[in-house]
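User: Fold this one for me? It's Steroid-binding protein 3.
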Amino acid sequence: MSSFDLFKYALVLLLPAAYLATRYLRSTTPPASSTSSTVEEKPVKSIMQAPRDDLAPPKMIPLTLAQLKEFDGSDPSKPIYVSIKGTVFDVSAKADVYGSGKSYNIFAGKDGSKGLGMSSLKEADAVPDYSELNDADRKVLDDWHGFFSKRYNVVGRVIDLPAVVKQEREASSENPTPAANL
Ligand code: HEM
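Assistant: Here's what I get for Steroid-binding protein 3.
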């Protein structure tokens, strides 16, 4: 095979991959650093689901991490919950991505804040303690919190987060930053 043929095959393989990656990255451009509800989001063509305007008022059901596990999509008769920084979202409407065996089931039935901040789909990273994240990853995490807040009903709050995360939450509610979005 000539090097020109190799070049052609590389192009055929790389171009679609580059196209998909660009679309995905563009579509996940942080939507929510500005939390001002008076600022309209620009209508960006996205492969991500659009924000909703029919969300229910947040509920504040207290849940332990052990209770949260029941809502990991393994029992189709129960809703599916994802917690981010202790805020519990009902993601049942997206069972096609969070349900058992689906791509983002790793975040279901738990608080996987650290993994979301790191953009990691590793099981070991999907844990609540995000205290080791650097500033950039914390911003990614806050943007995910903003993303979920605009698309999923809040049903509760995790009450037994690791101590270190609890402290951070308390500190940020004493001194709230716009990006925290909590
Ligand atoms: C090349 C790598 C990736 C591709 C092509 C990709 C693709 C996608 C697509 C197509 C969606 C929209 C799904 C839907 O609404 O049905 C999506 C959503 C999402 N992705 Fe990824 N993804 C990638 C990597 C990641 C990684 C590393 C993470 C880890 C944090 C991640 C987390 C998410 C989350 C949380 C959603 C939101 C689903 C929702 O609730 O609407 N993705 N991704």
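One thing worth pointing out: The chain has two domains: 1-29, 57-182.
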